[in-house]
Amino acid sequence: MTERGSFTRYTYWSERRVKDLARDLEIKTDPGWKTKITVFKVPLISTGIDFESAPRTPHRNEIAARVERALGDLAVEDFVTPPPVKFAKGTGLVQFSHFVSTEPGRVVLNARTQASDGTNVVICMFGSQDNVPGFVGVHDPSPAGWSSSAMFSVTDWLASRCSENDSQWDDPESISVEAMKIALEQGNNNKYQDDPDRPWNRGYTFGDASDSEWLAEIYSDVNLDQDRWSLDDPVDRILVGAPVWVRSPRSSLRRYRDLRRNFNNKNSDLDGRT
Length: 274
What we know:
The chain has 274 residues and is an alpha+beta fold. Helices cover 24% and strands 31% of the residues.
């Protein structure tokens, strides 16, 4: 994953998860040593003027680059390799939504990618709204819509890092499909169904960013049995986990509050014409 040419902002950053990864990978993220500079010394006299610069904490981009280098091939980007993967990364559109569940303050991010062999992959990343900065729109009001009855089971499944599942969706494919429905379809309503090309009409969603770079820790990774499932969109593989970070070009971020407002104003202008 390489830095984009335009100015980027972190639309998601999990400080705790980054620190855990840095510790596990033995990456130094603490401030470095102080730098001491001697301006001059008087000949024959062992005195001088010294300046010390305070230790500098690495910037997020520096920490992210160190983490990526340490992960190496563990972070899979082209999903031609068989499941499971432990880390995944990619570049593309990321959509941000609230996760309606028993735990407040949860969000779910979704991304799609296609492997070089044509495999269609959906990545479902469940995280905390505390890791989403305000400029993304996490505190903006949004419309309501459909919420999944599987949210209780998915929440419990995620709490175990997808290692325990005693729900009615008791096999990896079934529970993964339910998690994908939450990531892609939660908030479905009549307005969104009438015009799916306007994703801001979907309930509980608050923004998206194209050309984003993302890194996720993956808990579950399954290939779907195509004879078993009949989905509206072609999906061959589902990854479920937690986002570590998402960084997006500033110009690519769409805050759905603004899109809803602009569209409503445009309709009002049209209605006022004679």
